[in-house]
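Practice problem: predict the structure.
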Amino acid sequence: MITRPPSVEELLSRGLMDESPELRLLFHRLNNQFGIILAHAELLESKTADDILRARASQVVASTLEAMVTAKEIRDLQNRLPERNL
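Answer:
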């Protein structure tokens, strides 16, 4: 029987992120996905001769980098919060 992984909300409700290997794994997987998006967008940005496509790829690069920073900020914030019960 395949069980679904816990949701982020379920994991956050358990307490600090450092105490949850499942949540650390989710952040690791999310960063891997961001890395793939970033690599493809940077490749497109550097290889395309089309100015419009290059501008769009640049927007994807910037947005992906911002998303990566946001994920890190969420993780850092969660690590600083006292344990809570929801």
